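Appendix B, record 7
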Amino acid sequence: MAYTLATFKSVLKSQYHASLAMLGEAIQRCPDNTWLATDHKNAFWQIGYHTLFFTHLYLGQDEAAFWPWEHQQNEVQHPDGIAGPSDPNSTLPLIPKPYTKAQVLEYWNFCDQMVDGAVDRLDLESPQSGFSWYQMSKLEHQLVNLLHIQHHAAQLADRLRSASDIGIQWVSEGPRPS
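Structure tokens (predicted):
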């Protein structure tokens, strides 16, 4: 069977929607006492927001194409929500103030709604990812982005199961165009 670029894009869309569905369910089902809990290095909200931030960023063609989500807190050293090294010359806070579950679900909806159009615009035949810190093709970079979503969705699902015996539904594929 020969695969066309349109087939690859259809599969990517399906897997983005499936991965985001599991992430979204984990965010939705997170109890309030777990959302801000500090018993892990990164709070639940941080991982959810971080995952969506990079989903949004990497669905773009390149670094220059990124436009921040309207509620993104930019006056911080690490706007993705996960603390990296501190800049000793900066007076900015390290990470954003915690986002509420409603805000993160709004961002989830934004990302899920952008998938189809964003994937349609990607040049999957490009030998470059479009991001200086990734030396790989655009197609491989999209697979890395999907792995990133799945990694953190599983991390959050495990936290929910451990903390509150809440399970997350497995989603194998998203909707496909008819």
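Remarks on this record: The mean pLDDT is 94. The chain has five helices and no strands.
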